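so ive been stuck on this for like two days lol. basically i have the seq below and the ligand is zinc ion, smiles is in there too. i just want the complex predicted, nothing fancy, no docking runs or whatever. if the output looks off dont worry ill sanity check it later, just need somthing to start from for the group meeting slides
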Amino acid sequence: MPELPEVETVRAGLAPALTNSKVLQIEILDERSLKRHQAGPADFVATLTSAKILAVVRRGKFLWMPLELPGSATNSKRLALVGHLGMSGQMFLRKPTDEPDNLTRVVVTLETSRAKKVEFRFIDQRIFGSLAIDELVETEDGQPGGYSQTSAAGKWWRNLIPSTAAHIARDPLDEAFDVEKVRAKFAKKRSGIKRVLLDQQVLSGVGNIYADEALWASKLHYDQPADTLTRATFDTLMAEVRRILEAAVAEGGTSFDEQYKNVNGESGYFEVSLNAYGMTDRPCNRCGRAIKRDSWMNRGSHFCPSCQKLRKRA
Ligand SMILES: [Zn+2]
């Protein structure tokens, strides 16, 4: 499942072509990919056709594109195209003359700001992902909705977020990420830290891979109760989460299976830097003991039994 670095790689790939592009045409090959668009496929096509895409914005694993609708320069309707990758969604940018991609569900043909035609193809093997148009609402803290790289200063959509993503906490790479707020949430949770790291209402963008990596780097057991972390340990954990997410963004994400690809259909390289995730039975890069995989919440937790011991509640 894509996490922050994979979604950021997709966002950064889409942004140059999609920013200030105009929607020419929409082809829906599988209506199931619009299941989150409440008003139905016909409304999706009618709303999006001729709209201008103003930016590509991300918070955690959520991507959205604020829209300027034709004939409404004031944007009384504050809408965005929201893309969920789910487990297996992919977003490719292709030329209209390129070969079709297998399992393409939706094709949006765009005219870029440089008057070139491109196809934004939404591919999804298992149809857990989706595209939808959603209303933008004000952020709770009055800060920017998410990360868009291009300057959002003075733009009407800057401090807005899709209503369906408003409950998602800020991610650790967000400039407005409030580490003290996250610390206070950790201090109130008796559940294991990995569970809290994956709770998108505590902080967003971290999934199974980067949680296992950050816990290995911090020498913490995945089931260590969150409220037992000392101030210093919590700070170490947050610093490792940030460091690992940044390093993975720089490598274009982790290609753990065939599902994740960048917008050109290429894989990321972070898997060569993994120390715990997917390393079952291989020697720990710190102590040499074998990495273990425990079943955990229908998935797995990878850890070093020697470096990452569960510490009893004091
Ligand atoms: Zn070890």
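The chain has a mean pLDDT of 94. Residues 284, 286-287, 289, 304, 306-307 surround zinc ion (CB under 6 Å).
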